[in-house]
Amino acid sequence: MPTAPAGSYQVIARRYRPGTFAEVIGQQAVVQMLHNEIREGRVGHGYLFCGPRGTGKTSMARIFAKALNCVNGPTTTPCGKCSHCLEIAGGTHLDVIEVDAATYTKAETTRELMEGVGRSPFSARKKVYIIDEVHMLSTASFNALLKTLEEPPAHVVFILATTNPEKIPETVISRCRRCNFDRIGLKEMTASLGAIVDKESVRVAEQERAAVLNAIALASDGGLRDAQVLLDQLISLAEDELTLETVRSLLGVVEGDLFTRLLGSLVARNTADCLMIVGELVERGRDLQRFTKMFLSFLRDAVILKAGGAPDLARVVDPTATDFCELLDRTTLPFLLNATQQFLDLEERLRGSAPPRFLLEFALIKLTAIDPRLVLDPEFGGFPGGGGAQPASSASTRAAGSGASTRARSAPAAPMAADSMGRTRAALPSAAAIQEIHTTDVERWVAFVERVSAVNATCRSVLTRARLVQATESKIHIELAAADLAMRTLMDRAEIVQHLREAAEAVWRRPLFPTFTVAKPEAQPSPASTAPEPIEYVEPPAPRRVVAEPEPAPEDDPGPLSFKDALEAYPEFRQACEMVEQAFGVKPVRFNGRDVG
């Protein structure tokens, strides 16, 4: 591979940065809009460039600044050779101010930046302010910018770039012309990478060239800059020739047929094969988090194609592959939705500290162990197959901590049946048995309690004794233990309700308002329920007087206790007297040395 002298190398992402509108890849709508405005003399004073990272927002801003200030301009084809074009490309032009919003979070620094707006340009036609990641500005900084942005001098153009437009105040957005940058398409990305490989004289095996470029493009997730950085790193890693194995080792990607194999094992409910695939990934040193992200893209294509989408919408799979088409015919759309939901949850959990291998294995076991007719996420609703099965009613799907798992453990074992290969497997349970299984709400209730407990110790003690009654579309119904009756008012405090709503929305992924009820206290057993089994007694003799002699009272005893007071003070004594009366037909006549009145 070609080598560069030490200290003179410039990374690919900078060397192949677009310098004209014609070199911009994948943003034809934005290019056409800016072309028309320059050609018709309708250039505005404020622009908002929105889009994912690495899609050309800052590069487009620089090209626009060149087009406005080129000696031949305003023009849609800046020459790139005049002093203005060269200085803008090098970032040294005095009239093109490019700043990072993270350094202007204070209102004072923003006001200092705005002080130069009123001054005339040094040498250019327009003074251009390019503010990158503008959503990082504080509220005070936005307020300091707002008035200038609304009525700037005629020689000033603001270009605001951001990856999070939802964080920008509406007052700022309404004062700018918005340009949305899309992710770079797979074909455009591979074509651009292929041109760079040719220019850099990188040796790639001809039979692996398409797979190598496709793997890099997929790993970059629509960001051309990310793809160029990965290519630069791969060129450094490869010794003589860039191979597919080198790409897989660095990026942690897997072969496309492994995705088809895994989905086939999920459809067949082959848990052993799913776990074997995970073991193979670990042995090869693959990144399980990246694998999960790529498998989600694979499931996305499967869902779209199964739902009747056009084949050209697929990004990862080959819609014409025979094995994939046969697999798609054997599965159902609700099952694919279930699998997608489980892997979406898995991707979020992988960002925590739990072992990635265990989380992946747990998700696969859940998908293969639970009956396929059961919708694992109630948000999707309905059962696949159209066999008349309906979702469990709200009354039968209430998860209540240990109560739900107790029902699951006490459910009868499913009968065994033989499949077409002679292997035994669990037969599908009845609809009633399916309604008794509802693991998702139980797991979410546990996660909900953990989230709330992490921020409020008082709620932790209350919720650990409570149970989930039902999570509807807009409310989460919680039943507090009878012992926590005094805590009922506390749970309505504004800060606690806010904690509960935030935790519920994070777990159930929809806004839920908490409502509470208090369980009724357990009824005390009546004396008759504890009475011994009736015994046949011989007719007793005539009633006789029974004298109950109490034990000697201690010296500090205030005085003899009356029979009436003893009955009221000691329920056990009253119960014993009633049992004696029922069994022998006699009543005490003396108590504590005194006659019983």
Question: How are the elements arranged and paired?
Answer:
Elements: H1 12-15, H2 28-40, E1 46-50, H3 57-69, H4 83-90, E2 96-100, H5 107-114, E3 127-132, H6 139-150, E4 156-162, H7 170-173, E5 177-180, H8 186-199, H9 209-220, H10 224-237, H11 244-251, H12 256-267, H13 271-283, H14 288-306, H15 322-330, H16 333-349, H17 356-369, H18 402-410, E6 416-418, E7 424-426, H19 431-436, H20 439-455, H21 457-463, E8 467-471, E9 475-480, H22 494-508, E10 513-518, H23 527-530, E11 546-548, H24 563-569, H25 571-584, E12 588-591, E13 594-595
Descriptive tags:
25 helices; 597 residues; alpha/beta; Rossmann fold; 5-stranded parallel beta sheet; elongated; Zinc Finger, Delta Prime, domain 3; Helicase, Ruva Protein, domain 3; 3-stranded mixed beta sheet
